[in-house]
Amino acid sequence: MSVFLASESDPIGHIVDKGVLGFSLFDQPVMLSMITLIGCAIVLYLLMHKAAKSIATGPVEMGNRRFIPIGSFAALVEVVVVYLRNEMLIPVMGERLTKRYLSFLLSLFFFILALNIVGLIPFVDIQDAIYGLMGKKFDIAEHETSAIFGGAATASISVTGGLALVSFIVIQFQGFRELGVKGWLEHLCGGHELVHGSIFLWLVVPIIFVVEFFGLFVKPAALAIRLFANMVAGHTLLITLTMFGAMAIKAGLGIFAVGGITIVSGIGAILITFLEVFVAVLQSFIFMFLTAVFISLMAHEEEEGHSEHGTHQGHDASVTTAAH
Amino acid sequence: MLIASTDPLAFNLLPFITTIVVFSVVAIALGVFVWPKILKGLDDRNAKILHEIESAEAARAVAAAKQKEFEQKLAEALEQAAQMIREAKSEAVRMGDEIRAKSEADLAERARRAGEEIENARRAAIAELESHAATLAVSIAGRILKREINPADQKRMIEESMAGMSTMSTMSGSGPSKRN
């Protein structure tokens, strides 16, 4: 009960990244998100390796069955990979760029998805509850936790910022590789036609340069903030709903009132959890997809024209995200 | 003991760097050991399905050609059978006509022979009747004349009577036949 009651003070306290048992590294506290990142990376790799073995073509002795993936998880991974590659990335980036960046984009999607899903499982509360039953008390809202794993890593701006920096590096790498330094600068100034066009058009070049230059950093920053904000908002709502029961007890309400509030808020929390699962998948997809769109924008103009339809889809996705 | 910030927007350098390092490592590991296997498996299956579809389409085309050939042969066989039936019917009609004509000819021949035999029998009967009549006439004439007629006379008289009757028969045509 003490553990449960501890949750009624501050919902943000549950979401904020916490230090792990006071450990530090280079005079910086070791955070729960770091352990979660490493744990998720290992689990993700092992799961995907297993799925890859199931999806990969088997030995000839198996006959036609060697082409069939074994297991529902492998089938799920296959469906997601095929959908992302054929229906989302190829229309946006074209065959060539998709082939070049598919590994990176798939890794980005599944890594963020793993972090989001793990964030929905209350590992921290479970560990604190176990320690609570052993007689140790932690106030999670006051940044006290016995947990060494768990928490929503993507609800930390440091984590989403790190992922956005990786996307930024890849996007700019693509720009320099495809366009060269001169082409990259022309891209920042509005493109080849504008720079080599009429002298009167040069008046708008400085404005476009400023906008495009800041856009270089705003785009990945928007990726980081979008993911972080969605995760924080969802978890805050979820924790607030679970706090209602404890708040009713603290307010001294009768058993029926407490029971009713608890049941209603519990049902609400369950429904919001389903929504959060959807948001976890959606945000993973949006982060990956917008990165793909930004990469494709750094391709040659004829390829941009090829992927015009996909770019519109990217904007549509941005609108969806903004609505969320 | 270091205490982390309670501000959700607080930026921590260590998780930031950890994210970059961990993601880079896992992306490289997945890129080397996982995605190529999955993508190759998908491409292999895709190629296999395409190959199977092409094979099925080729087999279907061959089957359609065979079916067309079979239907053509069947039509030819049916036409041939109909032709044979027509020829058999025509032959049967021809043979029936032939048999009927032969039967009619045979019947006519038999009728003709029967007519001849009847005519011969009639003539023999007439001759025998004439002979008996002559003998009877001679006998009667002898009794009338009350004398004995020797065989030589009898023979002569018979011959005379016969000649006379033949003359009468000739003169009267086929008198007995007409009487019959």
Features:
heterodimer; A: 324 residues; mainly alpha; two-stranded antiparallel sheet; 11 helices; globular; disordered N terminus; B: 180 residues; rod-shaped; disordered C terminus
Taking the sheet with the most strands of chain B, its summary is: none
Assembly status: heterodimer
Order of helices and strands of chain A: HHEEHHHHHHHHH
Domain tally of chain B? 1
Uncertain stretches of chain B? 175-180
How many β-strands of chain A, per DSSP?
A: 2
- The geometry of chain B reads as rod-shaped
* Count of separate DSSP helical elements of chain A: 11
Beta-strand percent range of chain B = under 5%
Strand arrangement, major sheet of chain A: 1-2
Q: What count of domains describes the coordinates of chain A?
A: 1
What is the average per-residue confidence, as pLDDT of chain A, rounded to a whole number?
82
- State the major sheet of chain A: 2 strands, antiparallel
Helix content bin of chain B = over 70%
- The H/E string of chain B reads HHH
Number of strands of chain B: 0
Helix residue percentage of chain A? over 70%
Describe the structure.
- The complex is a heterodimer of chains A (324) and B (180).
- By secondary structure, chain A is mostly helical.
- Chain A contains 11 helices and 2 strands, in the order H-H-E-E-H-H-H-H-H-H-H-H-H.
- Chain A has helices spanning 2-5, 11-15, 32-55, 72-120, 123-133, 157-188, 192-195, 205-250, 255-297, 301-306, 308-323; strands spanning 19-25, 28-31.
- In chain A, a hairpin with a 2-residue loop joins strand 1 and strand 2 (28-31).
- Mean pLDDT of chain A is 82; it is low at 1-8 and 304-324.
- Chain B is mostly helical and 180 residues long.
- In chain B, 88% of the residues lie in helices and 0% in strands.
- Chain B has helices at residues 13-145, 151-171, 175-179.
- Chain B starts with 12 loop residues before the first helix and ends with a helix.
- Mean pLDDT of chain B is 84; it is low at 175-180.
